[in-house]
Amino acid sequence: MKNNLMKKLMPYTFIFPALLLLILFSIIPIIISLVISFTNLDITGLGNWGAVKFIGLSNFINLFHDSLFLQAVGNTLFYVVIGVPAVIALSLAIAIMINFGQNRFFKLMRLVFYTPSITNTVAVAVVWTFMYNPSTGLINNILNQIGLGSVGWLTDQNVAKIALIILAVWKAIGLNMLIFLAALQGIPKDFYEAAELDGASWWQQTIHITIPSLKFSIFFVSVTTLIGWFQFFDEPFVMTKGGPLGSTNSVALFVYQNGFQQSNFGYAASASFVMFAAIILATLIQFKLQNKQQNG
Amino acid sequence: MSNSLLKSQQNSRFIVSVILAVFGFIMILPFLWMFLSSFKTNAEIVQNTRSFFPKQWTLENYRNLFHSGFTLYLRNTLIITFFSFVGMLFNAMAGYGFAKFKFKGRGVLFIMVLATMMIPGQVTMIPVYLILNQMHLTNTLTGIILPGLVGAFSIFLFRQFISNISDSILEAARLDGASEWYMFWHIILPISKPVLAVQGILTFIGGWNAFLWPLILANDEKYYTLSVGLQLLQGQHTTDYGIQMAGSSFMVIPIIIIFVIFQKYILQGFNIQGDK
Amino acid sequence: MNIKKIAIGVAIVAIAGGGFVALNQAANNDSGSSSKTVSFWYGGDGDTDIKPIIKDFTKQTGIKVKIQSVPWSQYNDKLLTAAASKSGPDLMVMGTTSVPNFVSSNSLMDISDVIKKDKNLQSNKFFKGNVETTKVNGKYYGVPWYTETRVLYYRKDLLQKVGYNEPPKNWDELYDAANKLSQRSGKDTYGFSIDQSEPTFGFMMARQNGATLLNKNGQTEFNQTAMVETMSYLQKFVKNGVSPKEDLKLSIGESFGNKGLLPMFVSGPWMVKSIEQDSGLKDSQWGVAQLPAGKYNNMSNTGGGDLAVFKYTSHKTEAIKLMKFLSKRENQIKYYKNSNSLPARTDAWNDKSLQNTKVQVIRKQLNSSQPMPLIKQWDQIGQNYVKAWEKISVENADPQKTMNTFNDQTNKSLDTSK
């Protein structure tokens, strides 16, 4: 009996420390923020809780009449739809290429592709601003050399979003490449040996062995990348502040502007919970799809 | 292997190398700019951001970096980094728990873990501060360490990799009478070397760059970290690029060392899932 | 991996963890027992600029001061946590624009009676614009410490080439000079920089044209002629290519130095040092001037920092002592010498160290300088202004229509937050 109980409790002992910390420092604060999203909390209320009023769904109703918020939602969806597949495809491709060899060059490349993750944001901003500069920038100079016209990378409302996506993908490749590299080591060598005996080409091996064997890590990367891109913040914050004309503003930046610059904490919290609802829905769909794939 | 096959492999390796080198150059460009600019004066950076190499190399920026608080900040940073590795262990345990046990509430609890990633940190910052204040942990190292100790990203990554380990190995060990803890230490962790290496790198970077909580929770500069110290050197209205680049270049050296050490283990996979 | 090693590691961690808890407690007790320590929050690098002055204070009074410098980028976050938890420093530096926010969050102590009793802290000692930033609803919540105001920076050599031996004195001259400068040959040459993301610039200009930003009923009047005319005036710069449409993201060495792509701009006193050190220009090539006057005046925008006592302090007397000490003339001068922050006390400006011509231009401008309206919603109004201005400049929208919408939107949000 006792043994049985121990067995039942065993899993909880493994997850307990992490769970306790997460509940204390993430879940409870999230619940508090959820409560705040139904109030008019601003800087006055922060110092005097008596002045805080519950205002029901007003914040949420106002959000959907706020053209700036709706614009940010549209932009964020654009970021997610383009950015997430790009990150997965490129980091997977680079991981496979780097896994090609073991000599010094390939070792160095692992570090090289990881450097964007460890480069100071200001340095990143300076160099990319220079590359994107409409008249003297590197990219437009190259475009002009090959006979194409100049592009207003950060100033054209339609192009600016793409420019930020390129920058964010560039930055995200390193970490995901590492994860894929680690996952690639788990694929048994005899799979490939068997395939080689059957005369399968490198490309066929990649499609039929490598990628299917990576489904656990691909799933991980797609879930975390999706969560991350829904909260797209750094790039518009550093490069464009959401402009020109709000065309690069994201929901996370909207939350920052309202919460921290303007101290409308209630309104900012409600915007972040709209985003939260979207993310959790997307994540649940991903889990459902994965389960189906595994069972089917 | 036949000769022609070997040759075609060599050819494709060459092509892959070229592609990687070209892309790699774009990847590392800002990093190089940061590093080289740390040897320029601020005036040179500001007058000509385009030139890559310093006209006149200077160590002035680095000299300004090491001011009075440096050793104290370094000590705090090392302590926080050390404890974040304890947090990594908790994450690994939780990842194992979610991957290899079936228990009541597993699905819901795991979604709850993931949910902690879905709200921007700025929204929960003040509530977290108030909780720590209630626990009388403001202005303590414990308070600074606790909020960042575990993370959903890391738990999820461990879960994914550990669930990839074949159950038959664990079953065999269980039949031999091994306890769950024994299996965690002696089977799961050794097999997970590649992912441990990735996590180790991430954990180190996280601890080493600790900025927000040391700053928000400290009511005293004695708990400041290197990142906070670095930020203190910036003015209210203007940016001193020289010193910022020197600071970042300095901060990145230990990260590169850790990366080079740990990346060896990324490539030490065990072939353990052969029975699928 | 060696399991024993890991186990030993974990044991060490556990012991160390216990040790730290003990350490923390010890530290807490320590700070509780010494009652004569004032804690002082300060933006930027406190050690170098202010420590010498604080040392003098401790020597004279026996009161210890614990300075905590907080990076500027996180200073507001730090103040928010103090407001929410009602625990913070005893004395702190407040950016002038944050004062109304933290008065409304109940974080600052009303020190009107302290000021009334002390000659050294009274309003006539400081610049009028700075005193205004410490006053909310007729009560004083701080003492001015250092001051900032906007002035015109211009390239002497380039202006001379287009026939201006003197910097522009009024709006017409400003446009004319800028227009001529923008017609120099070369790629990307402009005449005057209008900072697209600066929320106070347009308001400042509108005041020069006679606009009152907030009327007596606390409502905004952005749709009135004075403001709309200003927007049309500024729109002309962008429409005719005299000012760039977007932020060129150039460093000061590229924009103002070298060929002078942006040879005139309006900014605060911190740019003096920045240009001197980093632009590569010779002293004779550039100058600082008072703002060109609009129809009514050349009113600039006051900023800077105030000293304020935290409302929940348990060391009120000591905090006020420190505040008085820092407000003394000689300490204001000392602080200027260390940090380059301009003294808010008018009589400090007689000192030799402030007799530089460029600094004296700023001194004159301070006579005609006023802060933005002191209401907690002003940040938000400023952000919305930036968006309205973007429509006018980038999309060439009609100023009157845009300002109508902006004004309605502002007054609506002012009403609901009442």
Automatic annotation (TrEMBL), chain A:
Kindly state a single biological-process term from the GO annotations of this entry.
transmembrane transport
Q: Which Pfam families match?
A: BPD_transp_1
Q: Which Gene Ontology cellular-component terms appear in the entry?
A: plasma membrane
What positions does the domain ABC transmembrane type-1 occupy? 73-286
Q: Which UniProt keywords apply?
A: Cell membrane, Membrane, Transmembrane, Transmembrane helix, Transport
What is this entry's stated membrane topology?
A: Multi-pass membrane protein
Tell me the Gene3D superfamilies matching this sequence: MalF N-terminal region-like, MetI-like
Q: What is its main location?
A: membrane
Entry-linked InterPro entries: ABC_transporter_permease, MalF_N, MetI-like, MetI-like_sf
What family does this belong to? Belongs to the binding-protein-dependent transport system permease family.
State the name under which the record lists this protein: Sugar ABC transporter permease
- Which species is the source of this protein? Leuconostoc litchii
From TrEMBL, chain B:
Q: How does it sit in the membrane?
A: Multi-pass membrane protein
InterPro entries the record matches: MetI-like, MetI-like_sf
Give the GO terms filed under biological process for this record.
transmembrane transport
State whether keyword Membrane applies: yes
Q: Name one GO cellular component term.
A: plasma membrane
Give the keywords, sorted.
Cell membrane, Membrane, Transmembrane, Transmembrane helix, Transport
Question: Which stretches are transmembrane?
Answer: 12-36, 72-96, 108-132, 144-162, 241-262
Which domain of life does the protein's organism represent? Bacteria
The UniProt record lists the ABC transmembrane type-1 domain at: 73-262
Q: Does the keyword Transmembrane apply?
A: yes
Subcellular localization, as worded in the UniProt entry: Cell membrane
Q: Which family does it belong to?
A: Belongs to the binding-protein-dependent transport system permease family.
Q: What is this protein called?
A: Carbohydrate ABC transporter permease
From TrEMBL, chain C:
Highest taxon listed in the record's lineage: Bacteria
What does the record list as GO biological process?
maltodextrin transmembrane transport; maltose transport
CDD domains from the entry? PBP2_MalE
**GO cellular component terms, semicolon-separated:** ATP-binding cassette (ABC) transporter complex, substrate-binding subunit-containing
Q: What molecular function terms (GO) are annotated for this protein? A: maltose binding
Q: Which Gene3D superfamilies match?
A: Periplasmic binding protein-like II (3.40.190.10)
Name any one Pfam family assigned in the record.
Answer: SBP_bac_1
**InterPro entries the record matches:** SBP (IPR006059)
For this UniProt record, the keywords arranged alphabetically read as follows: Signal, Transport
UniProt signal peptide? 1-26
Q: Which family does it belong to?
A: Belongs to the bacterial solute-binding protein 1 family.
| Name of the protein in question | Extracellular solute-binding protein
What is the organism of origin for this protein?
Leuconostoc litchii
